[in-house]
Amino acid sequence: MKSIYLTEPRQLEIREEPIPIPQEHEVLVKIAYCGICTLEQRLFDGQRKIYYPIIPGHEASAVVVTIGKQVRTSVSEGDHVVLDLVNRCHACPACISGNSNLCENRFKKGQRVLGAFSQYMVVRPDQLQTIPESLPLEQAALTEPLACCIRSLHKVKASLGDTILISGAGTMGLLHVKTALVMGIRVIVSDVDASRLAYAKKIGADAVVDPSDGEAFTELIMSMTWGRGVDSCVITTPAICAVESAIKVLAPSGTINIYTSYGDKPNLPIDMNTIHRNEFVITGSEGRSENDFYTATRALVNRKVVVDDLVSRIYPMEQATEAVEAAASGAMYRVLLDMEV
Ligand SMILES: [Zn+2]
Ligand SMILES: [Zn+2]
Fold this sequence. Notes:
Elements: E1 2-8, E2 11-16, E3 27-35, H1 38-45, E4 60-67, E5 80-83, H2 93-96, E6 120-123, E7 128-131, H3 137-140, H4 143-155, E8 163-167, H5 171-182, E9 186-190, H6 194-202, E10 207-209, H7 214-224, E11 230-235, H8 240-248, E12 250-258, H9 272-278, E13 281-284, H10 290-301, E14 311-316, H11 320-328, E15 334-338
Parallel strand pairs: 8-9, 8-11, 9-10, 11-12, 12-13, 14-15
Antiparallel strand pairs: 1-2, 3-4, 3-6, 3-15, 4-5, 5-7
Helix pairs in contact: 1-11, 4-5, 4-10
The structure holds zinc ion (2 copies).
One zinc ion is lined by residues 88-89, 91-92, 94-95, 100, 103-105.
């Protein structure tokens, strides 16, 4: 089988290696598609480092090949599955308290981190969810990013009747839009790219706005919310001005979620009195718990969130470098690797 290793920044190398043999409590899967997330882009350009050499990839769909004798789930050979590739220890305080996305041991040395840029993979049974064959494996590869959006919307306690501002209309922004809409939430999307705004509108956003003209931006949102502002806001773009604009239109007791990660370490552009007087809640969301992943799987399987339009291009695994560069260009929504070819 072939695996794609990142050996140093900007160096991807395809290596031929034996198909791994699962232990009695493990499952061998054949990867179908794997998405290229910001994490993979940052690993590639060297902004983020885990270890070298590393097999990137954490947004994968797959087919079950072999099941270890001690595996006690209902999974069968040939099942289509989606993979939840966080190493959750199920024993640390984060895991036990329902925040396994923050598992203290998820990056612990000596274990595989990520790994789905490979044709075969051995996983634990709790790292997979079965899906019906009616859900295309290409679309199923978006389970992980959808799970992250579900966590994000829970963090801002978004619910029926709310108005939310989604800042940034890239793949993650649009996944938030689609999810929020099926939850009965009114959605306003901000972005500086007119074509992205047009697409957000096309998929159902209630309003779209370019935040470059600060006055028009504030006016539109205030007029839509009876002068109160939005109940919550999710920041999916690392532009600092996005946080600045969002705070100006957040209703008292509103919540803002820093969903994006940043290349550097910017400070919040807000004074503490404004937070104090308005009881603003500022949170972050990082990855997803197994519960979020399960919710995402069901939402995709039930076709409540449909993501086929967010897969912009599929590259064969041999063209991994081109694929990562295309994903990083910002000109597309999700780029996938086809691991079969
Ligand atoms: Zn991801
Ligand atoms: Zn843990």
